[in-house]
Every structure is written in C-alpha cells, then in structure tokens.
Amino acid sequence: MSGRSAPPSETDPREVQGKSPRHTSPWIKFGVPVAVLIIVGAVLGGVLGTQLNKSSKNNNSSHPQSSTSLSPQQSSSYAVSLSSAREKLGRFATGTDTYGLPEYPSTTDPGLFGTPTFVPPQSSPPAAWPTDSFKPSNPQPTVVRSGRPRLIAPSYKWNALPSLISLDPYLRGWNDTIFGNATAVLNVPPKAFFLDGSSGALDTAREIKVRVKNLAYAYRMSNDSKYAERLWEELLNASGNGTTSFGTAGDNWNSNHFLDVAEFTAAFALAYDWVYDYWSQPRRTALMWSIISLGINKGVAAYNGASYGWWRTVNGNWNCVSNSGMIIGSLAILNDDPTGAATQMLNLALPNARSNCDLGVSNDGTWVETANYWYFGNTGHAEMASSLLTATGSDYQLLKSNPNFYLTGLYHIYVTGMTSLFNYGDHGPNKFSTTANCMMFYGTQYNQPFYTLFQRDRIDASEPTGLFWYDPSVSGGWWDNLPLDHYFSNNTDQWASMRTSWTDNDGLYVAMKAGTNSGHQNHNDLDSGDFVLDAMGQRFAGELGSADYNAPGYFDGGNASSPRWLYYRKRTEGQNTLVVNRQNQVLSAFPPTNFDSSNTTQGSSTVLSIPQDSTAFFTADLTNTYGGTSIHRGIRLLNGRRQVLLQDDISNAANAIQWRMHTNATVKFSTTSTTNDTATLELAGKTLVAQLLNVKNGLQFSTAAPVRYDSDPPLPAGGTDPENLGVTVLVVNIPAGSNSVQVVFNPQWVGFNSFISPKSVPVSQWSLRSHD
After folding, report:
1. Which residues are CB-contacts of 487 (< 8 A; sequence separation ≥ 6)?
2. Quick one: 231 exposed, middle or buried, by C-beta within 10 A (0-12, 13-18, 19+)?
3. Beta strands 728-734 and 701-704: pairing type?
4. Element (H, E) at 118
5. 177-200 burial, b for 16+ CB within 10 Å, e for fewer?
6. For the domain 13-47+103-107+165-475, what is the CATH code?
7. Separation CA 13–CA 365 (nearest Å)
8. CA angle 688, 693, 696 (to 5 degrees)
9. CA gap 102, 22 in Å, rounded
10. Percent of the chain at pLDDT above 90?
11. Which residues contact 643 (CB under 8 A, 6 or more apart)?
C-alpha cells in the first residue's frame, strides 16, 4: 500500500525490555466487559499442549531448526513434509475457546510457523495486494483520488479481493462470516434509536455502523441489490426520515454526546462511498445532506465553542473517535459538498487529531485510559489514518507525530491474558463495531508483521475494514522470539505482565499495575498494586470493571472527595490490593516501581519447555499511595513459573490493613488447621491453593462480601452499586505495626506436585536470583 510508514526507530518493539476442556468463567458475566462483539465466528475443537519441563534449560526441540544440518535427501523430504503440513494447517488456530481466544495446535516443530515476516510478492501464493497507482507527489487533505470508493478500500482492493479470497484461508473465512452477518440483518427491522443516559445513543450508532459495513461489503462483493436496499432502509431510518422517530429532529444524532455524532457520520460516510455507484442521485444527495447537517455541521460548531466540543483538548478515545468520524465524513463527500463544510472540517480536525488523539498512546505504548478503551481509541485512529491514506495519499503525520504510537500493538498483546484482558478500570459501552483490527493496519504501516499475525486468529477479526487492512503476504508465528514478560514504565501507567506461554491458554498469566491514580480521564480506579491471575484456563483473581455509568457523579473524580470514589468498583476496597484503615488510596500518589525478568522467549513452535530458573518480578513502593504508611508490594514467578509469590512488607503501620483479592472461585479452608493459613480456590473444576507463609501476628485467611465497608461515606443521592454476583473477596486482616505478608499461589497443575516454599526476602531486596 502507498503511504506505508517506517517504524520510528530500528528497534523491534518485541525486543524492548525494562489442555483440558475449558468452561465459561463467571468473570465473563461480571468481571469483563459486557461488550458484545457482533461478530459470528466458528468455534472449532482444539487441544493445546502444555509442557512445563522441570529439567529443560532451553527451548529447542528435537526437530530440525533448518535444513542446513541435513543431507540433501533429508532436507528435501523435510521441506516437502513442512509444506504439506502448512497447507493442511490453513489457519494457524484450530478454533477458539470459551473466552474467544485462539487455540493453537500442539507442535514442537519450529519450522511449521516460523519467524514473523512479510513475504515479498511472488507470482505464486502467498499473494499480496496489488500496488496502488494513486501516489500524489504533493498530497493535500482536500484533494482526493478520482473514482469511488476512496475510503479504506479503494476499487483496486475490491477488484483484487476475489482472487485473494480464493488463495487465503483467513480472507475466505472472514468473507463468509461477513456475508453471514449481512444476511442475518436482511429480515430484521432497522435499529431503533435508544438513549442510554451518559452513554448517549452510542450503542445504537455503533450497531448501525456494523450493519452498514457488512451490508455494503456484501453488496459490493455480490452485486446483489438486496443488500444495498436493506442498507438504504437502515440509513433512511437513522437519518430521521423513516416511519418511526429517530432522536430529536434536527439533532437526530445526539450532539450532546458527540461520540454518537461521530459514529453515525462515519457509518453514513462508508455507506455513501462504498455503495456510491448503486445509489441514485437523489439518494446520494439525501445521504450527503444527512452527513453535513447532522454530522459535519455539528463538528464545526464543536470547534467553534459549542459546549459538546470539550473533547477537542483531551488525549484519548473521545478525541480519536470524534475526529475520525468528522474526517471520514468529510472525505466521503468532498467535491460533492456545496457548502464547503467538509473542507472546513478537515482543516480543523486534522491538526487537532495530531495534537490530541495521537497522545492517547503513552511513550511505552500503554493506552492512557484503560485496556478496554484502547479498542475505541485505536479503531477511531486507524479508520481515520487509513481513510486519509486511501483518499488523499497521506496520513499527514497521524502515524508519526507520536514517535511511540507504534508500540500500541505491543501493549495490546501483553495486556491480553490467558482468559481475558488485564481489564483494570472502566470497560466502556458495548464495543459492537469496535475491534482490534487496527492491529493489522498498524502491522503494515509500522512494518510489524507480528501485530497482523496476532490479530488474524482473533474472534473479532471477521470485519470488513480489518479484511482490507490484512496483508495476506504475512507469514510466521507472531509469538516467535517474543519475550514472555514485559514492563511498561511510563510514569502514568507503570505495569507489567508475566506468563508461561503465548500459545497455551491453560498456562499462567500474572499482571500488576501501579502508576498514578489520576490522569486517566475518569476511567481509572484507586488501584495501585492491583493484580490479576490466570491459571489452568481460569481467572482466579479478577477485575469487577465498570459500575453504573449513569450513577450520580460517576465521572466526577477530580479530587479525593469526588463522588466517583464512593462507588465500590472504583474504591480501593473494590480492587485486588491493600486497604489501609478502610480508606481509599491517595489520588495524587505516584509509586516508584521496579521490574526484572529472565527474558525467557518462546520459539516458533507452540510448545514451550520453560527453564527451571526462568522468572520475573514487579515491585512497587506504595508508601505515598497510602499517605506515608510504608508498604512495599511485589509479585514474582517461582519454580520455573509454576508458582506465584505475592508479598507485602509493611513497616510501623499506625492502622490496621486489609489484604483483598476478588475471585469467582469457591473458597474453602482446611479443616485440619485452626489458623486458616491455607485457602483452596475451586473454579470450573480447577484448583488453586493460596498459602500464607511465615505466619506471624495471628494472620489468617477469611472471606468477605464484595460490598462497601459499613463505615464508608454514603453514596450520592440516587446512586447505587451494581451487585457483584458470584464474587467472593479473599481477605487477610493485618494488625497495625510491622508485618511481611507472603502469599504463595500454587495452581494444581496436572501431573505436578513439586511445589516449593520460597525464601523470605524483603521486597526491596528482590532480584532475579534472590529466591533461588
């Protein structure tokens, strides 16, 4: 594609460092986003292999690494066998599990997947997109290519797609899914307008955007007018010209919640552009005026001081999505617009997006809001940049103005656990049209093929824009040579994740965060020291996510006494961390952190033998987080990554402290112990044993309900907390004074019982070898 950007540096972000049947966990219902992806994906069977080989010191297998050490006859035989195996494999993932994550075949053959790369175009498969002939020497945002479509998928891509679909199993599968989704809409009524409090009509806008993409795609690929006519019915209704009312006349797209305007505008723009040749002139005119009057004119007003234009100065999803809708809408009707609004909008939105949307990514790649809001912001950014590239021939520095934006894909990979995201903070409204397919766009633009390879096996990949962002010349296993651990050191974020494998979802995943408790656009929690833990295909320590977005004062978190911090899921007691004297953490705190890793990487095979000395740890000095109470918290992997140690060193605390962990597991205590120093957590047939070590001062486990303390200040008038059904809080009550609270988590791995009792080492003295 034209406009491909080189990465901002020569550093591969992957080098940056500082199965049994699975069941649906209750975290799916209560702990992860209630964010329905309107994507129909085939769920196939697949068994993953797990190897935690205690004696192994490397990742090599007995299979040949290359043909260089073989005789010519052996080399030829191996090459033929490998080619046959790859052809038979088709898609790398054999299916998806109950969490929607890909399952990979168990193989120790490093040649089957190989190093991530873009294979140069050849006369035989793998095929690639043809070269775009539209290459203006002096691109201008108001000078667009001739002909339609011009947004994301110009005609040369549509023309090449049938041939590519016949050659590529991923494109073929996505095409079938999109047609299935489009066909499913044919016999349902147009989406009705629905206003959901502080979330506006966003669900309505995004679901209509999904329908637009699928129906427009199906029409262009089949030339069957039934898809275009059903699309027109949807557009007629959403413009306020149908048989039922749709919002407020003249402001049908709800400008007071500008995300709604942006998403409706983008949907209408894609419908206008992708189906341009089918629409009659009166229909084109009607669509254009809807885009102008209900969309772009509202955007111009936002830039000219309207109260709903506050998003112009924020770095995050609001800026990305809002500017994206305005830019896509303007590009769609440019040269047709008799008012000049489209040109005016482009001149306003483009520099603003560079200055604000692009800063939604921190300098380590972390999204400034939360792991779930990454989807919203990056989808908007990618659709905006892609449309500019295809329509005008340049992204106008949207991909380069933040030199570290290219690391955002790395963040998404490491924040994805064995069951779900490290889903701290708010998760946002339903995703609908928002997917992670920006990974495929960024994979090409930043020359990071492992981004593309990572996303193409995900359940949300079957979506039209992602299909056009996918480069079918990509090859290899995205996990090849990828470190298992990563530390994100940006001052605002500061977090780390550690795991046992990239391809075995039944392994171990631990993530912990610190960073600042403010500066996340009121989507954060008071949660320094918060962690999640996945093992054996279950999330044993999980997040509660968003509370009620419509609750009074929910998005008012500007100071310590703001109402946001009264709601349980936002308070410190609603997190997997410590609570001092039943009080929230300090809002303005910034805890220093430390991280180290043995830098274990996975090879190209899907089975990883972990060296016994492989480890990683993350620590945080939470003293200023708790107003001067000296607390050092650390989490580390032990015993070849089979066990997890969580330790809190507390010095001279003036008040009682409570250790808290939220779980969907059934918690049981040993009937033979009077001190409850061991808790057995059972979840979906899997067992995790938590043990208190070096018990002093009468420390023991107990349980509590996931509700506010009875001593908490009252909720705002009319405010309520959502129920946390199926959740138990595992608790350790710690008296005032000095204590070292050491909890070791022992997943009950099949065929393994060689658990160790780690040394007692102060968190401040942890090192890679401190617990050998």
Report:
1. 17, 18, 495, 496, 595, 597, 618
2. buried
3. antiparallel
4. strand 117-118
5. bbbebbeebeeeebbebebeeebb
6. 1.50.10.100
7. 10
8. 135
9. 13
10. 82
11. 637, 744, 745, 746, 747, 755, 756, 758
More confident residue, 73 or 676: 676
Q: Which residues pair with 18 in a beta bridge?
A: none
CA distance 185 to 125: 34
3-state secondary structure 581-645: CCECCCCCCCCCEEEEECCCEECCCCCCCCCCCCCEEEEEECCHHHCCCEEEEEEEEECCCCEEE
Chain centroid to CA 528? 20
The string of pLDDT tens digits covering residues 251-304 is: 999 999 999 999 999 999 999 999 999 999 999 999 999 999 999 999 999 999
Mean per-residue pLDDT, 749-766 = 96
Segment holding 647, helix H or strand E: strand 643-653
pLDDT for res 371? 97
- For tokens 């492992």, the residue is 450
Rg for the chain (alpha carbons), in Å?
27
DSSP string, 122-175: -SSSSP-PPPP----SS--TT---SSS--SSS-HHHHHHHHHHHHH-HHHHHHH
Q: Percent helix, strand and coil across the chain, each rounded to 5?
A: 30, 15, 50
Number of helices followed by number of strands (H, E) in the chain:
16, 23
| Amino acid in position 246 | F
Question: For helices 317-333 and 258-274, what crossing angle results, to 10°?
Answer: 30
Please compute, for residue 738, the number of CA atoms within 13 A of its CA located in the half-sphere on the CB side: 3
**Residue owning tokens 């489209």:** 342
State how far the Cα of 518 lies from the Cα of 413, in Å rounded to an integer.
24
Residue carrying the six token digits 């405010």: 719
Residue in 520, 594, 42 with CA at minimum distance from that of residue 315: 520
Question: Which of 515, 651, 632 has the alpha carbon at shortest distance from 578?
Answer: 632
Query: What ranges do the domains of the chain cover?
Result: 13-47+103-107+165-475, 487-765
What pLDDT is attached to residue 660? 98
* pLDDT at residue 72, as a whole number: 54
Alpha carbon distance 71, 69 (integer Å)? 7
Contact 393, 3 (CB under 8 A): yes
- pTM strictly above 0.70: yes
Joined together, the tokens standing for residue 689 give: 């044993």
How far apart, in whole angstroms, are the C-alpha atoms of residue 328 and residue 325?
5
Which stretch of DSSP H or E encloses residue 482?
Answer: strand 482-483
Inter-axis angle of helices 449-456 and 438-445, nearest 10: 160
pLDDT tens profile 411-444? 999 999 999 999 999 999 899 999 999 999 999 9
> What are the backbone dihedrals phi and psi of residue 289, each rounded to the nearest 5 degrees, phi first?
-70, -30
Q: Where are the beta strands (DSSP E) in 664-749?
A: 666-669, 678-683, 686-693, 701-704, 728-734, 737-747
Architecture of domain 487-765: Distorted Sandwich (2.70)
- 360-383: per-residue pLDDT in tens? 999 999 999 999 999 999 999 999
Task: State both tokens at 638.
Answer: 């032990």
HEC sequence for 523-544: CCCCCCCCEEEEECCEEEECCC
Cβ count within 10 A of residue 370: 30
